[in-house]
Structures are given as structure tokens and as C-alpha cells.
């Protein structure tokens, strides 16, 4: 009776080599009267495409066109690369290339690690190795295994202008950046990770496209002026013709999962995905990813970056939520960094109290509807009832390092004892932890913002934009030039530094924290109901008891500048001392100690204690 | 530990005469360095106001300033009326007047009718009587009681430019239009309604302000360019400084309830209230209205107009909803009108099938996520599980009449038998019914769009805008001039027409439908689980069985052009025939008939049958 939306989930966008050897092209151009496929190589050929339902145009070539370069000619007026291009060998302005999808996987299937076991290592392919490629990154997998992380998160790899970019200026969401090695290299990287037992999280950007090489407007109403984002018009997720726009991005997400075997997607800045439909794009995305995971017999995770502090993101659809698997909790970072450094610029001004830090460990969000002076409005929603595995936390990430004037890391601001304290606060928390590449050995390289745009006006605008952003934070001085190659090169990390000196000591500590998180059941379980906190505001000490069945770990985190003397707040008992950063070195075997309830104990400044209760 | 938003619910905006005889002024002007109160009468006086928290300025006069005219002087640069003005005696550009709130109510309290018993009569104060005032409207209460409606819905009364306006160009949300009689007259009207047992619903506009006399931007960031509405920038419900903006509109809603004893608010075009906060403005509004109702020992209702077809509006907060009490269901109207008239312009093209009509009675929304050709996108969410009392339905309202080229009513398009069919479809439905003034006796006056702006450019723009709107509907011809007084006068209704001729017959029918809805328990109960439908698509007949406990009513609605012969679909039995529009006149006593299951019955075209099963 009623016309259903006709797009099936197996519908393909872009160029695809079919199993029978033919090549199929499909593109959405609803406002165009005719579209031609222009094949550039081998030989020049222009073929009219057939209009299909819903504004799509399609064409099937009776041959395998793998490697052919092509563009679409729109109403004989403009000629553009494919919005769903898989490969842009000559950059964002050049023709698209047909890519065959016939990779021979060595790993039997996906990774299979549950989200609650993720210890995420975020990296930028360009800055992770000297070569800056996916293949070079494969060579670093032994280092990741040595550290003990279980998941790798790649900053966006979708084709961006030039050879250097954080990745958030991508304009071909289906293509893998050529300077990183292109689509085959990504598959090799994912395969190698899976063989090593690592999950792969991919950062994808569904809130905007980059400013250079974005030709989507020539094809159709991908954008709307009803919603305004920090990057201009919002993506048209809820207006007229939004169906194929949603489909484009949904198919993109599914393509990473199905074709590239990505285990989880990190969804960039989801609070700027404006959608007033009854079914928010994010809800549809989570549903589709989960269904695809079921079909593949894997759990696929949708992980959202969001500045909204809104539990709707991770509540189930039945309770009116989007049903995403987890979201970043920026409050956790801000309260921690503010406590460690006393920093008050910008949003850090919102976290002056020790109680903010305590709340972030105990309840998730610090702002749960209270007034935020930085935002000049109420912020957030109550998060106490949300399971901890729905939150991802960190003490550093690409934004929190890179969006500082010099791209300086936490290690530029605090000493080794505080770095250990930060690491323990993250890795012994009940949340899913994320590390930013190199933080594990206090990498000295900064992570400044870098681009390599081709448009001089845009370059000037980016330079101005960064300065303005820093001015808002009252940062004085010149940021590194984003367009300079030197800025990019300065970001390259050197994990070999982990072998000696203070970096080696920190690296050993991170390894030990990750090992203990994996092996002590009270630290592995991500149920908040099993955590009990006692905070001493004067001494700036947080005591935590974490339990799993009849096992218990007791933690103490000392944030004070001075030694604190305070009562031990939990039940008396005998404990194995796994960590005590006030003592030099790591004990080869955990010594036993006795603690009595309310016994006064001395806590060294910036120290961490991890005790495991002994069975009687 | 954390600073709470300091605005208490008893916080006052505007000018208020305190119980001790002093007069308090408070205004929000967060970007102004100083604000002066300028008293124009009696005598000129300019007094500096004191800055208070959150960008407010205040001042207390040691006297009762009732009747004084005043403006605010902002940074010595501009002088403006009070955004929270209670009275604008010289129109939207003139000074505000201090109003004492000391009305002596005759009715003991609010009306107290539950929403499920509402039969709403929507009226425009200007067009309802020759005088066009609230006091004149009081004189029409006996007519409303004669008809039998239980609630009156006033189109917006907030001060708008000039003397004639539908009300959606209001710019002083707290002030009652002077040409209607001002605030005292509204209180007299509400009091008279309550004395007569009628509830009063007030239409309020929280999605935009009118284009003339809107000085809010001079006071603060009431608007945001992050969201775009059909009327320009969206109201700032979720950006920086949105707290006091939300407060302004929340206080407005509470003021109507507390000070004017309004029983329910009709919230205009709520789908254009863009708010990405975790707690949507509508959720906060519903919560605050309900809490205020509890404090007053009354249930206060929040009723939303919404084009979103989104059940989130009426789902409870615990299920992620806004918790509003009901929302208009436009699909119900469109499917009905399309079926009666065959009209295909604009959105009517979305309802060509008889099944659309059936679904609107059975499930609420016609569009529950299906593709809408008119909107060129998926539309709506599943509504089957939503209780019928959460939907308000009609066969005519101010929009559906007034937004036609000539403002023509349904009675201009169809004959008496179809008008009766439409009335029965609405009033015997399980939803809350709304009548548009005069439809009950087929008022011949149109309800064209009218304004009386003072700005010639704006007048020209409105004329153009209306023409464009009609062009989108492929309507040819000239609409009446919105600015002309004649257009306004043509809209005046004459309920005395109900006393004779075909209007009298229709009026008697409406009375009978309302009487039966009130008195037959299966028609009074608004539980959809108690309704069972059988539709004959070929004959275009809908059979409905509605039950309450062991009582049952059987209804038949014949939409076909021809007589239909079809089997009676429910259990055999003896029935009292309350309505049979195929027979002339209304029976003084309902005759009894016998029906056998599957017995072939003859149904006359455009007829309605209402049977009540007799107890054995």
C-alpha cells in the first residue's frame, strides 16, 4: 500500500567489479538531467548513464575495469570525481580509480575482542612512523603487543587534500588516503592487527567534509542551511532528499566493516550531527552496524565522540536513546588535567574543584545538567546509571595534545610521578581507556595541527583560524605553521625511546598497569556498582575499592602536593601490594601488607597504590 | 560544590507590584553595561537599575506604580519597551504599562476537566464576534454550552503589531493584545468560562517572534544562527546564555497558568523549536507545567502542534520522551480531507489511499517512517502504542481553512452529507476532537490570512510571501489582501445562522454527536485497545466496534460515492440505532434493529451509522 524506501542494505555506491567480471557504476545526482561516465584510461570513452529510482544514475560495463580512471560528467556542465571513490591516485581533484575488492585475508576473521576488554592506542598513520604509511605501521605491531594494548585506533584515513593532514579534512569518505598506501595497504594493516589479536578502530567523520575537493554539492543536496556547524552548513540528515544522503554515510560505515574488517568506528564530533528526524542518524547507524555485526557473527561497535554530555547517545533505542556502544567522556580528561596542572584556560576553568575529579571517576560526567561557566549554559545529563563500559576515557588524545598552542603533551607540563598518576587514574578506572601514541614512554615530540592544502586562500584561512582558536584560550605566541612540512615532521614519534632512561621507567609502568587491568578480575570488570569511593578533599586523596565476586582491589590516588596522613577507609585485611609508586622500581613479587580500618596511613604526594585483598 | 542555576521558579520578569505596595522591575540584558528605567508617566523620571546575577538588571520603586508607562534605556544607546511587558497600550512600539495583578476571581478555581473529556472549540477572538473582543466573546458562552463543547482554544492573544492578526506575529509574549481588551479582559473571559464549566486552552508561540516590534535582540542573545526556522534564526534554546532565554519562555508559560488560570497551552509549531540540549525545552516545559499544576492541585496540559510525527513528543521522560500530554495529528486531517474531496495539492498528494484514512483512525499517524513524496524523505515514527488521548484531531482548524487561497472552509467544497461524515469521523474517534469556530453550523465566512502591520515593506513582503506559499500548492488566482481590513471583517462568524435551514440541521447533528460522545461509555473511553476496525476498500466503508467493559458501540462510515452492499463484520445482536444519516431527521427515540454476523447490509453513500448493542 505504501511506498517503502527502496534502498536495500546491499546497494552499492561508486564503482564495483562484479563477481561475473563486469563493472558497475552508481552515483546519486537527483537534480541532474543526465550524467555521463567519462573513462580516462585506458583510452578515452564517455558513456551515458541510465537514470534509476530516487535520483540515482547507473551503468554496467561488460568488462573488469579495475585500475581504470574515471569521472562523472554532470549535465555536460561539470566533471567531477566519484563521491564514493575508493581511490584518488592523483589527489582530491583528480579522477577516481576503479578498485577490485579481492583481498586475500590471512586472518580468519575479525578480532573478536569485546569492548569491555579494549585498551585503545590512538595513532596517526603519518606521524606513527618515519615513513608515515600503513605498511610501515605494521612494523610497529610488536611494540604495541609489548605495551599490551588490545585495540588500535586510527585517526581518519579518508582521502584528504595533499599528503599531510590530521584527517578531519577528508572529502572522499570511501577512499583510503593514497599517501598512506591506499585501500590495499589498509587491508594489510587490519589483517596484520587481527593476526596479532588487536582490534582496529577507525575514526570516521560524518558531521562535515573538508573544505578542499568537496564536490558533493555538485551532485545533490548533501548539505542544509537549516543547521549550522563549526564547519559551515550541516549535512542534510533530516531534510528533503535526506534518504540518499543518510544512505551514503551509512553505506560508508558498513563498507569499512564489511570490506575492510574494521572492528569499531570512532564517530567524530557527533554532537554536530544535527538531525531532528524521529530516528536520529546515529540511532540508525548504530542499528545498522549491529545488524551487520550479527550477520558477520561479530559484535561491531559504534563509539562516539560527543561534547553533548548526553546519555541519550548510549541509552538503548527502547529508552529513547541512540543505542551507541560508548562515548568519549571529555570531563574525565579535563578534570584530571586541571587537577594535575592547575590549568585554567578555556574549558579547564570549569573543573576547579577536587570533587569534579572524584565525580568523573564515580559517575562519568562531571556536568550532569549543572551550569557550565565556559559554555554559559546548563550542560549534560545524569550519567550515574550508565554502565562504565559506555564511556571511553584518556589523559591525552590527539585533540587534547594537538589543540594546544605548541601541540605539547602532558609530559611537557608535569613530571614523571604525575604522569604515572594520570596513567593509573585512566587504566585502573572502570572505563574503557585510550592512550595517545607515545604517551606510554613520554614521547617528547609534540602533536601540532598540520595540513597540506593546495588552495592558498584556504591555507591563509586555516592559519588565521588556528590563531583565533588559541586566542580564545588566551594563549599567547605563535603556533607552528600548519601548512609547513616541518610542523608535520616534528610530530613523528620514536617508540625506540622506550628502551632507556625515564621513558623506559614510564613504559614499564604502563605495561604493568595494562597487565594488571587484564589479570586482576576487579579491574577487568566494568561494572560501576562494584566500585566504592572515599575522597579526602583536604589531602586530595581518592581511595577506591573495586570488587568482582569475592575479590577486591583497593586503590589510592594521591593528587596533593604534600604527604597526606589519613585513615584507611575500608575493611581491615591482608593485601598484596602490586603498585606503590612512592617506592622506586617495580617489585618482582608483590609483597604482603596488613591494613586496619581507620588506621592512619601516610600517602606520598603524586603516588598510586594498588592492593589486592588476600583470601583468608 | 557546584554552582546551580540560580533562577528559582518564582523569579519574576518584567514589572510587578509587590504585596507591600512597592513595584519591582527586572530585565535580562547580559551584554549591556548599564540599563536605566525610564518612567514616562506620571511625570518623567530616569532611574539607573542595579546589575544582578546572570546579566539581569533590577530596581524596586517604593510605590505602587500601577498604570505607569515605562521603557528601558540600554547603555544610553537605545530605548525599548519591556520584553516581559504585560500591556502595550500604544502598540508594539510604544512604552510598556505596569499592570497590577489583583483580579477578583468569581470561579473558585480552574476548570478541572480531564484531557480525555476535552471537546475543543478553536476560535479567534477578533473574528468570533462583531466587536472582536474578549468581553464580547463572553457573550457567546451560552452558544458554546448549547453546542456542548467542553474546552475553548484561543488563537494567540500575545500583543502583535496593529489591531488585526491571526496572532502568530506576537512580539510581547507576556502581554494580552490591547484590541482584544488587554489582560483584565482575558481574566474576565477565563473566569466566565470556568464558571460555565469550560476549560480554556491558550495558543502560545515559542518558536519565533513576529517580524515587527521584536526588540529582543537589543536585550540579549534570544536568537541563534545555528538553527534556521521558516521565520529566520531559531530561538536560542541550547547555546551560550540559553538559560535565561529558556527561563523567559518557561516563565511565560507558567504565568498564563498561574496568573490567568489557563488550563492548557497549545504550543505552536513545536517541530521548529530546535534544541539539542539533553533536556529539550519542550521536556522542561512539560515538567514545569505539570509541577505547577501539582502545586495548584490541578492537572495542567501541554498540547503540542508538531509536523514531526514523532512519538518522542508524548512519550514519558523515562522513555526518552518530552512528556507532553498530547500532540496534533495532521495526518488525520489530511487523509480525511483527501478522502472527502479528492484534493491532491501539496501535502494532500501523500494520502491517496483509503488505507491511509483507515490507518489514521486505527493507529494515529499515517506516516510512521515511510517515505513521504511531499517531504521527499522518510517521515514519522510508529504510533500504534501511543494512547489515543495523546492525539488531537480535527476536520478543520485555522491553518487548514486559513492557509487555503481564499480561506475557504470544508463546507465550501463538500455537501451536507459529507460534512456530517467528517464531523462523525472526528467526534466518534478515540482521539481528542477539535472544532474550528463555526464548522458546527457550516459558517459561510472564510478564514483568510490577515495582518495589520505598520511597516510598508513588511506588508509588501507578507503579500508576496502568501502568494509564493500558494504557488507552491499550485493554487491559481489572487488571495485576499492580508493587510486589508475587509479581509479581516470577512472572517467574522455569525453563530445565529445555526437557528435555521441546513446550518440548523448540521448544528443539531454536531450537538447530538457531542452528546453521544459524552454519554455512551464506549465513545467516552479513549483506549485504542478497545477499538476494532474492519475496512472495505472497494466499498470505501469503515466499520468500527468500540467497547468499554461489557458495552459496545458499532459504527459505520461510508466514504463511497455509491451505495455499498457488504457483510456486517461483527457479532450478531440487537442494537439501538442512535445515528443513521441516510435517514432524514434525528429519531426522537433510538429505534432497535437486529444484525446478524455476515448479513449483507446496504450502506448509503456518505452516511454514518451509530449503533449501541443492547444488553441481553
Overview of this protein structure:
Two copies of one chain form a homodimer. Chain A is of the alpha/beta class. The first copy, chain A, folds into three domains: 14-97, Immunoglobulin-like; 117-516, Alpha-Beta Barrel (TIM Barrel), CATH 3.20.20.80; 527-613, Golgi alpha-mannosidase II (Immunoglobulin-like), CATH 2.60.40. Chain A has 15 helices and 31 strands. The first copy, chain A, has an eight-stranded parallel β-barrel with strand order 10-11-14-17-18-19-22-23, surrounded by four helices. The first copy, chain A, starts with 13 loop residues before the first strand and ends with a strand. The A-B interface holds A 1-5, 225-228, 238-243, 271, 274, 276-279, 308-312, 315, 318-321, 353, 355-356, 369-371, 373, 375-378, 380-381 and B 1-5, 225-228, 238-243, 271, 274, 276-279, 308-312, 315, 318-321, 353, 355-356, 369-371, 373, 375-378, 380-381.
Please, what is the CATH homologous superfamily of the largest domain in chain A? Glycosidases
Number of strands of chain A: 31
Query: What's the level 1 CATH class of the largest domain in chain A?
Result: Alpha Beta
CATH fold-level label of the largest domain in chain A: TIM Barrel
CATH architecture tag of the largest domain in chain A: Alpha-Beta Barrel
What count of structural domains of chain A?
Answer: 3
Oligomer: homodimer
Share of helical residues of chain A: 10-25%
Structural class of chain A: alpha/beta
Q: Ranges of chain A with pLDDT <50 over ≥5 residues? A: 1-11
Radius of gyration of chain A: 25 Å
Main sheet summary of chain A? 8 strands, parallel, barrel
Number of helices of chain A: 15
**Morphology call of chain A:** elongated
Which two chains touch over the largest interface?
A: A-B, 44 and 44 residues
Q: How do the strands of the widest beta sheet of chain A line up side by side?
A: 10-11-14-17-18-19-22-23
Give the CA-CA distance, first to last residue of chain A. Answer: 70 Å
Mean pLDDT of chain A: 94
Strand content of chain A: 15-25%
Amino acid at each position: 500500500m505504501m511506498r517503502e524506501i527502496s534502498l536495500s542494505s546491499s546497494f552499492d555506491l561508486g564503482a564495483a567489479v562484479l563477481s561475473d567480471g563486469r563493472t558497475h557504476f552508481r552515483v546519486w545526482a537527483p537534480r541532474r538531467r543526465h550524467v555521463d561516465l567519462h573513462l580516462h584510461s585506458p583510452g578515452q570513452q564517455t558513456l551515458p548513464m541510465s537514470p534509476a529510482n530516487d535520483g540515482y544514475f547507473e551503468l554496467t560495463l561488460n568488462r573488469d575495469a579495475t585500475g581504470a580512471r574515471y569521472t562523472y560528467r554532470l549535465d555536460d556542465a561539470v566533471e567531477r570525481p566519484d563521491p564514493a571513490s575508493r581511490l584518488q591516485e592523483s589527489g582530491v581533484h583528480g579522477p577516481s580509480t576503479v578498485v577490485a575488492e579481492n583481498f586475500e585475508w590471512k586472518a580468519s576473521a575479525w578480532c573478536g575482542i569485546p569492548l569491555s576488554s579494549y585498551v585503545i592506542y590512538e595513532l596517526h598513520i603519518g606521524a606513527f612512523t618515519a615513513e608515515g604509511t600503513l605498511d610501515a605501521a605494521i612494523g610497529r605491531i610488536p611494540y604495541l603487543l609489548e605495551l599490551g594494548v588490545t585495540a588500535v585506533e586510527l585517526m581518519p584515513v579518508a582521502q584528504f587534500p595533499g599528503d599531510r593532514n590530521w584527517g578531519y579534512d577528508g572529502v572522499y569518505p570511501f577512499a583510503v588516503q593514497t599517501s598512506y598506501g591506499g585501500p590495499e595497504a589498509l587491508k594489510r594493516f587490519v589483517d596484520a592487527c587481527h593476526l596479532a589479536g588487536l582490534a582496529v578502530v577507525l575514526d570516521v567523520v560524518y558531521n562535515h567534509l573538508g573544505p578542499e575537493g568537496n564536490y558533493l554539492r555538485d551532485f545533490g543536496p548533501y548539505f542544509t542551511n537549516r543547521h549550522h556547524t563549526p564547519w559551515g552548513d550541516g549535512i542534510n540528515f533530516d531534510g528533503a532528499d535526506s534518504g540518499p544522503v543518510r544512505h551514503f554515510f551509512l553505506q560508508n560505515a558498513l563498507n569499512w566493516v564489511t570490506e575492510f574488517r574494521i572492528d569499531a568506528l570512532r564517530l567524530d564530533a557527533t554532537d554536530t550531527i544535527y538531525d531532528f528526524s524521529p530516528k536520529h542518524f546515529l540511532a540508525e547507524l548504530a542499528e545498522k552496524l549491529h545488524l551487520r555485526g550479527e550477520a558477520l557473527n561479530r559484535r561491531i561497535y559504534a563509539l562516539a565522540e560527543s561534547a553533548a554530555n548526553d546519555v541519550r547517545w548510549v541509552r538503548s533505542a527502547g529508552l529513547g536513546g541512540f543505542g551507541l556502544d560508548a562515548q568519549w567522556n571529555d570531563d574525565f580528561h579535563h578534570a584530571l588535567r586541571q587537577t594535575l596542572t592547575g590549568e585554567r584556560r578555556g574549558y579547564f576553568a570549569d573543573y576547579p574543584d577536587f570533587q569534579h575529579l572524584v565525580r568523573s571517576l564515580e559517575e562519568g560526567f562531571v556536568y550532569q545538567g549543572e551550569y557550565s561557566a565556559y559554555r554559559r549554559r546548563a550542560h549534560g545529563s545524569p550519567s550515574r546509571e550508565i554502565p562504565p563500559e559506555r564511556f571511553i576515557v584518556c589523559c591525552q588524545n590527539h585533540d587534547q595534545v594537538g589543540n594546544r598552542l605548541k601541540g605539547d603533551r602532558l609530559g611537557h607540563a608535569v613530571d614523571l610521578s604525575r604522569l604515572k598518576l594520570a596513567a593509573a587514574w585512566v587504566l585502573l578506572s572502570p572505563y574503557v581507556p585510550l592512550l595517545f601514541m607515545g604517551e606510554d614512554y613520554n614521547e617528547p615530540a609534540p602533536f601540532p595541527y598540520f595540513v597540506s592544502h593546495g588552495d592558498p586562500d584556504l591555507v591563509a584561512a586555516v592559519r588565521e583560524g588556528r590563531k583565533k582558536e588559541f586566542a580564545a584560550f588566551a594563549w599567547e605566541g605563535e603556533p607552528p605553521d600548519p601548512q609547513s612540512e616541518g610542523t608535520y615532521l616534528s610530530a613523528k614519534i620514536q617508540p625506540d625511546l622506550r628502551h632507556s632512561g625515564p621513558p623506559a621507567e614510564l613504559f614499564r609502568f604502563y605495561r604493568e598497569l595494562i597487565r594488571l587491568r587484564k589479570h586482576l578480575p576487579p579491574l577487568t570488570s566494568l561494572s560501576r556498582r562494584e566500585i566504592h569511593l572515599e575522597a579526602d578533599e583536604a589531602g586530595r586523596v581518592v581511595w577506591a575499592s573495586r570488587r568482582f565476586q569475592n575479590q577486591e582491589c583497593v586503590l589510592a590516588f594521591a593528587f596533593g602536593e604534600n604527604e597526606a596522613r589519613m585513615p584507611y577507609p575500608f575493611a581491615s585485611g591482608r593485601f598484596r601490594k602490586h603498585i606503590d609508586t612512592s617506592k622506586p622500581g617495580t617489585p618482582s613479587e608483590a609483597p604482603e601488607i596488613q591494613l586496619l580500618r581507620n588506621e592512619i596511613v601516610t600517602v606520598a604526594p603524586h603516588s598510586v597504590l594498588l592492593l589486592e585483598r588476600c583470601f583468608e
